[in-house]
Design brief:
The radius of gyration is 24 Å and the shape is globular. The protein is α+β, with helices and mostly antiparallel strands. A hairpin with a 2-residue loop joins strand 5 and strand 6. It has helices at residues 20-28, 52-56, 65-74, 84-98, 122-139, 152-164, 180-183, 197-205, 211-215, 219-225, 228-237, 268-288, 325-339, and strands spanning 12-17, 37-40, 47-50, 78-81, 105-109, 112-116, 144-149, 171-173, 255-265, 291-301, 311-322, 346-354, 357-358. The strands form 3 sheets. Strands 5-6-1-7-8 form a 5-stranded mixed β-sheet. Strands 9, 10, 11, 12 and 13 form a 5-stranded antiparallel β-sheet that branches. The protein binds a DNA duplex through residues 40-46, 48, 62-67, 69, 82, 108-112, 193-199, 226-230, 250, 252-260, 262-263, 297, 303-305, 311-315, 317, 347-348, 350, 352, 386-387.
DNA sequence: TCTGGGGTCCTAGGACCC
DNA sequence: TCTGGGGTCCTAGGACCC
């Protein structure tokens, strides 16, 4: 055992689907099995999921598709546009298998969950985790990796190790690792959950390269280089429990609708039309959640890949809660005009709704609204629309349409 | 020519109130 | 009229995650 076991020590697992979007596409398109395979973001812009074969050929996360297209053609890649309906369905199936083994599940993202197994004995822990891994693969067809440790950060770190070192066979326990503290000197600080690109770059300029060096950095310097959560991350790496497993899903706090434009644009008409459409789809999401909003933030930004880092945002508070796109547009359009400059070009815009309230508590104002409803902008050349060339034609509308998998 | 979208949290600074 | 500090709230921006 790496550490002496503490009283009340928790056992937190992370269960993580391998190359999730690629694994989903392979269920629907078995022809891609064994071939290098990638899934592209919206606009078919960049790579957001890679099969092992694609990783081995040097394709990186976030690589722009247009820079790799020829290479991929040459090497017989299977390329898919993202299909979130499919991934959502398969995600539900994965979680329902996991929940047969524990109810202490936090669904952390579409392909990951934290599970609190503190009530299970150490003798049985690995068996249960092995069983879950086996059953998710057998029943849903999705391979998973599992890391387990005394907190979320160490679970993530061991799951990372399980993926790096094939001898773990996809399951790594913190309590099986000998000399854990020494091992931390061979792990790059940027591989820690919670330490991103900016922070790790900052740390490296202070000579902090490895996780071992990070946990030996003074609290003061850690907080200076990051923030309070960076300090919590340090304490979790040392064995404390700071980031709690969230068993009850929290209510949605805000909701965003935004897109990059198909090309850079500078016409206010075009931007207005795009913004109106994002408001419309945001309102659709509000209605699906039976929510309304009292506050919106609109934002407008340039093409960061062309050093056009200008970005503006504006928060607007309404005089009542709203869920009507034309009313919301009426409150927002003048602010969009203020933010816009005809001397700049723009690549992206969008809207976030905050202060979401249930629709059944909407109070209609006693007096008629005193703002005029503006006619929404429509029927322009839609330069802002996105493209999607490789979308799989198959959608799952019920579980029965998915192929059954037995292994 | 073409480089994702959505979510949460934290911080600094300003406005406002007492 | 002049004086000031502390608390709270809001916003814009910037981190992080997937």
């Amino acid at each position: 055992m790496g550490f002496k076991q503490k009283v009340m020590e928790k056992k937190i697992a992370i269960i993580d689907c391998n190359n999730f979007y690629v694994s989903c596409e392979r269920l629907m398109n078995p022809i891609s099995i064994g071939k290098p395979t990638v899934v592209l973001s919206n606009n078919d812009g960049c790579v957001i999921a890679r099969s092992q074969e694609a990783k081995d050929l040097g394709i990186k996360m976030g690589d722009p598709y247009f820079t790799q297209k020829d290479f991929m053609n040459k090497h017989g890649f299977c390329v898919y546009s993202s299909n979130y309906n499919l991934y959502g369905d398969i995600s539900d199936r994965v979680f329902s298998v996991i929940k047969k083994y524990s109810l202490n599940v936090e669904v952390y993202s579409i392909d990951e969950s934290f599970v609190d197994f503190s009530n299970i004995n150490f003798e049985n822990l690995k068996d249960v985790l092995e069983k879950i891994k086996f059953e998710v693969k057998r029943q849903v067809g999705i391979p998973v990796s599992i890391g387990v440790g005394p907190n979320k950060t160490l679970a993530k770190l061991t799951s990372y190790m399980a993926k790096q070192d094939k001898t773990y066979n996809g399951l790594c326990s913190f309590w099986d690792i000998v000399n854990f503290r020494n091992l931390l000197y061979s792990v790059d600080v940027s591989d820690v959950w919670g330490i991103g690109r900016k922070w790790s770059k900052k740390m490296k300029s202070f000579g902090i390269e490895s996780v071992g060096q990070f946990v030996n950095t003074s609290d003061g310097l850690v907080q200076q280089l990051t923030n309070i959560n960076g300090l919590r991350t340090k304490y979790e790496l040392l064995g404390s429990y700071c980031f709690h497993v969230q068993l009850k899903p929290k209510l949605k706090k805000n909701l965003t609708s935004s897109r990059s434009f198909g090309q850079d644009i500078n016409s206010l008409d075009q931007i207005s039309e795009a913004m109106y459409n994002y408001i419309k789809s945001g309102v659709k999401k509000l209605n699906q959640n039976k929510m309304a909003t009292t506050t919106a933030t609109i934002f407008l930004s340039g093409n960061t890949h062309k050093d056009q880092n200008h970005s503006k945002s504006k928060t607007i508070t309404f005089d009542k809660s709203m869920n009507d796109e034309i009313e919301i547009w009426s409150q927002i359009s003048k602010h969009l005009e203020d933010m816009y400059s005809n001397l700049k070009t723009y690549k992206k815009c969008g809207v976030t709704f905050h202060n979401l309230v249930p629709q059944n508590v909407i109070q209609n104002t006693l007096f008629p609204s005193n703002f005029e409803k503006l006619i929404p902008p429509i029927n322009k050349q839609k330069k802002w629309e996105m493209k999607q060339e490789f979308k799989s034609q198959k959608f799952t509308t019920s579980w029965n349409e998915l192929p059954l998998v037995f292994s």
